């Protein structure tokens, strides 16, 4: 176990360093797009599966609640939380459409979709991005590995330089917190 702990910390630190070096400008750009949308009375939608669903919810809650600063509540919704919508859409149309149908229903031009997928290949995430593009949303992909299909479908793709799902997720939540830190500076 000692070896596992040491290796995991070291891998995490290496991923952290590479992510800072490679993604800092893209993180800033994405944060500014989100801030711009919110300032123009648009909202942020978030999607993800498994651990990334938890990340989507975590980030949405920082916006509607607060991150660090006491500021106005901001419009963000994780499309991963409504079990009635998820089970109805999944049951009637197939799991691939659980997020896309909600994006068609709730998304408006100028809103932002944050699509979180470590592989960049989850069909439910790819269809959500397709729906978002059709409706004129700004699409930001948080991914990893080789970026998968998500890489070329989003307006902005932040590809964490790691092949390990857990470390990619660890960077995604850090990136989410950086979005929140930027938003705190403009409100
Ligand atoms: O948290 C983990 C693994 O660390 C899992 O729950 C993981 O999120 C799930 O297997 C997801 O279905 C993976 O999907 P994706 O990140 O490739 O889109
Ligand atoms: Zn996980």
UniProtKB/TrEMBL annotation:
Its main location: cytoplasm. Catalyzes the isomerization of sedoheptulose 7-phosphate in D-glycero-D-manno-heptose 7-phosphate. Its EC number is 5.3.1.28. The gene is gmhA. The keyword Protease does not apply. One of its GO terms (molecular function) is isomerase activity. Pathway: Carbohydrate biosynthesis; D-glycero-D-manno-heptose 7-phosphate biosynthesis; D-glycero-alpha-D-manno-heptose 7-phosphate and D-glycero-beta-D-manno-heptose 7-phosphate from sedoheptulose 7-phosphate: step 1/1. It comes from Olivibacter ginsenosidimutans. Zn(2+) binds at residues 58, 62, 169, 177. This is Phosphoheptose isomerase. Substrate binds at residues 49-51, 62, 91-92, 117-119, 122, 169. It catalyses: 2 D-sedoheptulose 7-phosphate = D-glycero-alpha-D-manno-heptose 7-phosphate + D-glycero-beta-D-manno-heptose 7-phosphate. It is an enzyme of class 5 (isomerase). Its cofactor is Zn(2+). It comes from the Bacteria. It is found in: Cytoplasm. Keywords: Carbohydrate metabolism, Cytoplasm, Isomerase, Metal-binding, Zinc. The keyword Ribonucleoprotein does not apply. Binds 1 zinc ion per subunit. Residues 34-187 form the SIS domain. Belongs to the SIS family. GmhA subfamily. The reaction produces a racemic mixture of D-glycero-alpha-D-manno-heptose 7-phosphate and D-glycero-beta-D-manno-heptose 7-phosphate. The lineage of its organism: Bacteria, Pseudomonadati, Bacteroidota, Sphingobacteriia, Sphingobacteriales.
């Amino acid at each position: 176990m000692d070896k596992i702990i040491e290796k995991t910390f070291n891998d995490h630190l290496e991923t952290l360093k590479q992510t800072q070096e490679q993604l800092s400008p893209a993180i800033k750009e994405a944060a500014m797009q989100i801030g711009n949308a919110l300032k123009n009375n648009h909202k942020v939608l978030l999607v993800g599966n498994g651990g990334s669903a938890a990340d989507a919810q975590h980030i949405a809650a920082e916006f509607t609640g607060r991150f660090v600063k006491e500021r106005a509540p901001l419009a963000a919704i994780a499309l991963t939380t409504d079990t009635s919508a998820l089970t109805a859409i999944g049951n009637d149309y197939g799991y691939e459409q659980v997020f896309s149908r909600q994006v068609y229903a709730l998304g408006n031009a100028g809103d932002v979709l944050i699509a979180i997928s470590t592989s960049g290949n989850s069909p439910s995430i790819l269809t959500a991005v397709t729906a978002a593009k059709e409706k004129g949303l700004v699409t930001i992909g948080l991914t990893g590995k080789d970026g998968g299909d998500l890489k070329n479908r989003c307006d902005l793709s932040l590809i964490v330089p790691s092949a390990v799902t857990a470390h990619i997720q660890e960077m995604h939540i850090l990136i989410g917190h950086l979005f929140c830190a930027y938003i705190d500076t403009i409100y």
